[in-house]
Amino acid sequence: MGDKKRKEDSRGGFVFGKKNYKFMFIGLACIALGYVLMAGGGSDDPNVFNPDIFSWRRIRLAPTLILIGFGIQVYAILLNPDKE
Length: 84
Description:
Low-confidence stretches: none
Structural class: mainly alpha
Shape: elongated
Mean pLDDT: 86
Number of helices: 3
Helix content: 55-70%
Order of helices and strands: HHH
Distance between the termini: 35 Å
Number of strands: 0
């Protein structure tokens, strides 16, 4: 009898609520934007140095966005969707 009730309780629904998934997608977008901002800056010719790889955008902004995105992901996982 106890097994039947446990199986009925375990069925149905998603693990997270709608609110959790919204925050997860926002965090994923922040992480993706950070990686896009970090990309590029190389040179096709190995003998030519491009100082643009040390720009403020690649050194400060992009890693900060990635860390903020990971923080949002952790918040989304720990968020209680039933709480108003």
